[in-house]
Amino acid sequence: MSLEEFNANKSPVKDFYHGKTVLLTGGSGFLGKLFIEKLIKCGVREILLLLRSKKGVSPEERLHALLKKEAVFINYQQQPELYLDRLKVIEGDISRPGLAISNDDLDYVIKHTNIVLHSAADVRFDESMKESVETNVRGTDHLLNIAEKCANLEVFVYVSSAFSQCIKESVEEKFYTPNIDPLELIKMMENEPRLDELEAVSKKMVEPWPNTYSFTKALAEEVVRRRRDKMPIAIVRPSIVTSTYADPIVGWTDNFYGFNGVVSGAGTGVLRIFHIRDEYKADIIPADIVINGTLVAAHYAAKHPAEENVFNCTMDENHTTWGDIRNDCLSQKGVVAVKKSLWIPTYNTTRYYYVASFLQVFYHLLPAVFFDLVMRCRGEKPQILRLYRKVHRFSDVLRFFTNHQFQFATKRMRQVVDGMEIVDRHLFPCDMKSVVWSKFGVNHIRGCRVYLLGEPWDTNEEALQIYRRRRLIHLLMLGVIYSMYVVVGLRLLEAAGVPDLRSFLGCTQFA
């Protein structure tokens, strides 16, 4: 939808954000970029972006680089002032005490902020307990301290995760009390003499959560819950966030996390065997459904502060399976190809852990050794084996979520969606029932190709020519390998005293 068309409509949700000042964390992240684009469209007065310096690059320089680079900022090239006039950098770091905000910036935030959108998080599943607590728990607590001081605050929104409560098979839209006091854990983490002790027992502490990410997300929700009497709050729990469905552009994404990594790995011929239960529900959700759903839920929570405003943003009302997603992706073999692929896509799945581990030797490790040997012969630095180490770590992280089945209640989110006016349904599409999964699968593959792998669509035919050559070589190699199997099998049968195959066939013909 164009900016002109969006502006031509008036709606309750759009009017709620129009002219407001929004404090946004995680603005340089995947969801953060989408929040920026949508809030700009809504005509907010200002977006206060909490950004830190990174690798010697100032927050302002990082922001300008993002605006120029990302296709999701669809109006930036023609109207840069539309963004620059409404984006104000607040230098800070969500993982630092007090968010490391200067006194002047803090005064500005407290004086002007109307809405807080907290989407920043450490999303690395294998992060240390200290770093996960600093960002996901303490960062949330310190942001709430600031929000309490904002005299004009209308709502505090925390973007959590549906898997914050993944220790339960059925997750309701309500608060759950964790088994550890989050504020006590923060104190332990800040106590340097006990830090080594904390890391030593962290694995035991996290159980039964599968990783520090989901564990600290659950603790952060508890931190938010304790401020319910101080300010209107909303918690939105998306499941595995993938590329956009349609808003503002089709198939956009900027990272290889989660499902994006699986699709990109399979499409480039890198990921060839994956441990997953194809018959299980695929807990994925398009990013624009999450963004629009969050903005709509925040509007609702501001109007109904006394309610328990926890919203599961998942596709349980309109789900698909991992097997169906796999088939949708494989339907694009020979239609979509990638020039920077390792080999042709050959994506296999199994529900058995030990089978997957065994087949990794033949599908991943042996080919990696072969490709690295070829690179050495060319005088190049071998890197495929190192790549597969990353692939296997990535697979280990996802294994828990692709081999467990969860049921997420969505009654509260459905109530909000059903209560939207018709114009809001058009401007903020977030009805989970509207997604056509086969369409999504095709667009997701193309989006990964264009936006993640950096290959414009007009190079697809050239990539297909490479694919066809490699496919022919692949089939010839399989023919040679299977012929060798037959020869070896016949020799083994002969050594075991089984009659010669020709004699056997002759006897069969005579009979």
TrEMBL record:
Q: Which GO terms describe its cellular component?
A: peroxisome
Q: Which domain of life is it from?
A: Eukaryota
* Catalytic activity field: a long-chain fatty acyl-CoA + 2 NADPH + 2 H(+) = a long-chain primary fatty alcohol + 2 NADP(+) + CoA
* Residue intervals of the Thioester reductase (TE) domain: 24-292
- GO biological process: what's one of them? long-chain fatty-acyl-CoA metabolic process
Enumerate the transmembrane spans.
Answer: 352-374, 472-493
Q: Which Gene3D superfamilies match?
A: NAD(P)-binding Rossmann-like Domain (3.40.50.720)
Give the record's keywords alphabetically: Lipid biosynthesis, Lipid metabolism, Membrane, NADP, Oxidoreductase, Transmembrane, Transmembrane helix
A Gene Ontology molecular function term for this protein is: alcohol-forming very long-chain fatty acyl-CoA reductase activity
User: Which Enzyme Commission number(s) are listed?
Assistant: 1.2.1.84
Domain named Fatty acyl-CoA reductase C-terminal: which ranges? 363-455
Q: Name one Pfam family in it.
A: NAD_binding_4
**Family indicated by similarity:** Belongs to the fatty acyl-CoA reductase family.
Protein function? Catalyzes the reduction of fatty acyl-CoA to fatty alcohols.
Kindly provide the name given to this protein in its UniProt entry. Answer: Fatty acyl-CoA reductase
